[in-house]
UniProtKB/TrEMBL annotation:
Pathway: Metabolic intermediate biosynthesis; chorismate biosynthesis; chorismate from D-erythrose 4-phosphate and phosphoenolpyruvate: step 3/7. The active site is at 22 (proton acceptor), 97 (proton donor). Catalyzes a trans-dehydration via an enolate intermediate. GO terms for molecular function: 3-dehydroquinate dehydratase activity. The keyword Transcription regulation does not apply. The record marks 17 as: Transition state stabilizer. InterPro entries: DHquinase_II (IPR001874), DHquinase_II_CS (IPR018509), DHquinase_II_sf (IPR036441). It catalyses: 3-dehydroquinate = 3-dehydroshikimate + H2O. Pfam families: DHquinase_II (PF01220). Belongs to the type-II 3-dehydroquinase family. The keyword Nucleotidyltransferase does not apply. This is 3-dehydroquinate dehydratase. It is an enzyme of class 4 (lyase).
Length: 137
């Protein structure tokens, strides 16, 4: 099984940014834990702060991978383009959020991604990614 974990803006700051919300691990440290826990899965990881690069990555792998786990960060609430890119590919996508977006500012309650994904995992910290992986098994 081949999965892409695709992270959006500011998620490169995990481990440093608001640790009370996002925790103290970097994503790279967490990814090593996932690789050890799921040795039969081939993981690719990509992070970008640029909307167009996220769309390009979805187009690149969206017809050949077994699944995509997407945390689009703030683009979740603003990007019709990312939502349309997901609609245009055949690889199933799980939308993931580390924090409970519904317990935060009201603008975070809207997702342009959700209508086009297989499922959503929200609010379980980094464990949200593991739950998304489980959905593909």
């Amino acid at each position: 099984m081949k999965l892409l974990i695709l992270n959006g803006p500011n998620l490169n700051l995990l481990g440093k940014r608001e640790p009370e919300i996002y925790g103290s691990l970097t994503f790279e440290e967490y990814l090593e834990q996932l690789k050890n826990k799921f040795p039969n899965i081939v993981f690719e990881y990509y992070q970008s702060n640029i909307e167009g690069e996220i769309i390009d990555k979805l187009h690149e792998v969206g017809f050949s991978y077994d699944g995509i786990i997407l945390n689009a960060g703030a683009y979740t609430h603003t990007s019709i383009g990312i939502g349309d890119a997901i609609k245009g590919i055949t690889t199933p996508v799980i939308e993931v959020h580390i924090s409970n977006t519904f317990s935060r500012e009201s603008f975070r309650h809207q997702s342009y991604i959700s209508p086009n994904v297989k499922g959503i995992v929200i609010g379980f910290g980094l464990k949200s990614y593991e739950l998304a992986i489980q959905s593909f098994l």
